[in-house]
Amino acid sequence: MTHLIHTNDTLASLATAHPEATTxxxxxxxxxxxxxxxxxxxxxxxxxxxxxxxxxxxxxEQAPHEVIRWDKRPVEELVEHILTRYHAPLRRELSGLLExxxxxxxxxxxxxxxxxxxxxxxxxxxTELEEHMTKEEQVLFPALRSGARGQAILMPVRVxxxxxxxxxxxxxxxxxxxxxxxxxxxxxxxxxxLYVGLAKLEGELMEHIHLENNVLxxxxxxx
Length: 223
Fold this sequence. Notes:
By secondary structure, this protein is mostly helical. It folds into two domains: 11-60, no CATH class; 73-221. The protein contains eight helices and no strands. Helix 5 (75-107) runs antiparallel to helix 6, helix 6 (118-145) packs antiparallel against helix 7 (154-177) and helix 7 (154-177) packs antiparallel against helix 8.
């Protein structure tokens, strides 16, 4: 690694300078998107983690391919990356996860371990995410592509960040309803696949929000 890692660095700054750190943060449920402003030491203290061990894990993490430092790339390029890497796949994956959750609650309703309420929550999540992405695609992102920076985009950015906080709360509730994505012993293949998919959704949405909150918006407002 070219940059030293310190326990008084924020989660957001670490995730930005060392993109592979997000794998470690997700492993330990360290919130680097909406809670990215917290120092690593403080976030670890809250969860009872040893920050030195987290630093060691980040240093040992091998990126599977050349990692792009998005804070070093143009705003317009980052917007395109967010659209293709996160917006498009999210729309494809959410519908399948929602249908699986509905099926599980219908078929396994009598079991105590059934994740009652998960399908309804996912439907709410899907609606809110669609509305949020549409606002970005129709208002904020076109403004950024046209060169709008600083005060010109301050209000829409504030709205998006407030909604990101709501998405973070939704992710926490989703994890609670799905028992930390650990299926019970009696879970069928669809149930197990759903929890794998939800864990993937959580990780990708956190990366998505991090790139917007801590990289894209920071860069665009700095002008």
